[in-house]
Design goal:
This protein is mainly β. It has a single domain (about 25-155), classed as Sandwich (Jelly Rolls), CATH 2.60.120. The protein has one helix and ten strands; from the N terminus they run αββββββββββ. It has a four-stranded antiparallel sheet with strand order 1-10-4-7, with no helix packed on it. A hairpin with a 5-residue loop joins strand 5 (about 70-80) and strand 6. The relative contact order is 0.33. The model is unreliable at about 5-20 (pLDDT under 50).
């Protein structure tokens, strides 16, 4: 009887994990240098888009350590479309509240913040899209950032 309960629990968790990620078309992290994230360093992601007719949600993920010195972070984004046209944008995200309590998820000294960047948007065409993210803080070498990632998923209609 105990083995059946363990098997049922494992199958339930597996089903939950699979169903939560079935709409993802891309999810990847890139590690930032242990010495710090230079203002000149661009974290790049190449995303293959095969369907331009569905809406997508776009998230940016930031993993940071407890020694991150600020409440917020500015990110500069560049998007290069398959036809080589480019767009640029900036995003400010708060990693802690006004009392210094870290937002997001995680345990110990590593926290992850999911930033909802765009909702229900359409890619103009299919093909490879290149996304670049760099830090826009005043520090030329920003300490405390561990990884940067993006997640793109098909949005519910």
């Amino acid at each position: 009887m105990m083995n059946f309960k363990k098997l049922f629990l494992f199958a339930s968790v597996l089903l939950l994990v699979v169903s939560c990620h079935q709409n993802e078309i891309f999810f990847q992290f890139k590690k930032v240098s242990d010495q710090g994230w230079s203002q000149d360093s661009i974290v790049r992601f190449d995303v293959r888009v095969t369907d331009k007719n569905v809406p997508y949600n776009f998230f940016i993920h930031v993993r940071h350590k407890s020694n991150y010195p600020y409440q917020n972070i500015w990110l500069f984004l560049e998007q290069t479309n398959p036809d080589k046209t480019q767009t640029k944008d900036s995003v400010e995200a708060y990693l802690s509240d006004q009392y210094g309590k870290w937002l997001g998820s995680g345990a110990g000294s590593l926290k992850e913040m999911q930033i909802f960047y765009q909702q229900q948007f359409h890619f103009p065409d299919t093909g490879i899209y290149r996304f670049g993210i760099r830090q826009g803080m005043r520090d030329s070498l920003l300490q405390g950032i561990n990884d940067v990632g993006i997640r793109i998923e098909k949005a519910d209609k």
